[in-house]
What we know:
The structure holds two protein chains of two kinds.
Chain A: H1 2-14, E1 25-31, E2 38-44, E3 54-56, E4 59-61, E5 68-71, E6 81-84, H2 91-97, H3 111-121
Antiparallel strand pairs in A: 1-2, 3-4, 4-5, 5-6
Chain B: H1 2-17, E1 24-26, E2 31-35, E3 42-48, E4 54-58, E5 67-71, E6 78-82, H2 85-88, E7 91-98, E8 104-110, E9 115-120, E10 126-131, E11 138-145, E12 151-157, E13 169-174, E14 180-183, E15 205-208, E16 214-217, E17 221-225, E18 231-236, E19 245-252, E20 255-263, E21 268-276, E22 282-287, E23 296-300, E24 304-310, E25 315-320
Parallel strand pairs in B: 1-22
Antiparallel strand pairs in B: 2-25, 3-4, 4-5, 5-6, 7-8, 8-9, 9-10, 11-12, 12-13, 13-14, 15-16, 16-17, 17-18, 19-20, 20-21, 21-22, 23-24, 24-25
Amino acid sequence: MKPVLTLLLLWGISAWGQTCSFTDLVFIPTRCPCTKAITFVNECQGTSGGQGCEDLAGTNFCGPTCAILTATGCNPRGPKMQVPLLSKSLQRDIRVSSAKGPQLAACEYDSEAFERWLVKTSTSRHVQPLKSAGY
Amino acid sequence: MLFASFTLLLSGLVAQNAVPQISPRPLKVSSIRKLEVPSFGTFGLTHCDDELSMYDHLATGFYKQTVILRTALSGNESTLYKLPDEFADSTAFTDFSVTPDGKVTALVEDEKGHSIRFDFDAEGKVSSHSQLELPDQVAGDKIAVFPNGTMLFSGHYRRGAPPDVKGKRYLGLFQPSGKLLRKVNESGMGDIDLDPPAQHIPEGAATIGKDANAYLLTADKVYVISASGQIQKKIPFTKPDGGFSAMAVQYSEGLMVVSFAKQGKAEALFQYLVLNASTGEPLGLYLPTEETGNDNVCFSRREGFLFITGDSNTVNLVTAPIR
Lengths: 135, 323
């Protein structure tokens, strides 16, 4: 656990120069594949003019002004995890990250079944696996 | 006489703006159909076309990735809309739009902050793309694309913009080439809060109706905008309570639905207001139930509300008519 946290903190420090703003962190509805429930989660909205938000191993990472590391509750790879990076500018993010939702449990999810269905039902002539898109 | 006329005019204005508060009614399920579709996660809310095909921003693990999936109502047909490789990793998703006949357009932002639209053909291949001619420091929020390809763009000036415009809304019509056709009068729509409170559900949405108008949702009104950029109507509504955000708008055959959401203690709470799209008259306020779940994917005048429910292994399409 320690090395992971160290890595996260180092990552945060390396992103210190970024200018990700609060508006880049959006509270969006997400459908959980396991419960089909809509839950609201924080996601980095994007490149924000090429600055700020970066993806980190299936999670999204924003720079210091909205630094929060979060995997969504619907992340097929596992349970929701929210690790605020300590900083004076993070009060808002910590408030956000301390919120608990009902759909935070691990989600067993068969991505191969999804790929098979996609190939079988696709109207496109050449469907490429989604794995290349990180799915 | 003058005073009486003024009073009459004032009372008329008040009557126009005072939207009666109505009590919510729980939806009742009329049918549940199992779809032969595997489970998948999505970001944002589902869009629908006239055939009630469902379009989702697929949750690939990265919100910024633009992968849209169409699932036919039968569950037996799908289309995947992806960006070309040279754009896929260097751009970030902003929004997407589906016309009533199923044409898909995605808006993304590149690393320099430019907004780029991608139009897809029926097979999911990119048919064209163009960079929008936007002022500096304008970021995209919501889009709605008319059947003729003209795009209604709703965005705002970023926090890096000059103080006099920072957070101001920007509304424009853009040709498929990305050229600005005309700005749309955004007065009265309110600015964008660049520092929203924690866990604030963002307000606003846009959709295209079969009547070829765009329906732009703000915190307290729906603006009906023609393909030429004229604001045809402003339809005010009353939220169930101040804690709700107006976060989705749907249109079907003269009816409009505004979806309200707020974060409850344990789960997200929703209510759906059905309005007459011509007169603005509220026709009913509905609550999802345990049986419907809270994933309202489509609305149609004939069918009512369609919801997706299920668990890890099943996907059900639940119908709840309006009463």
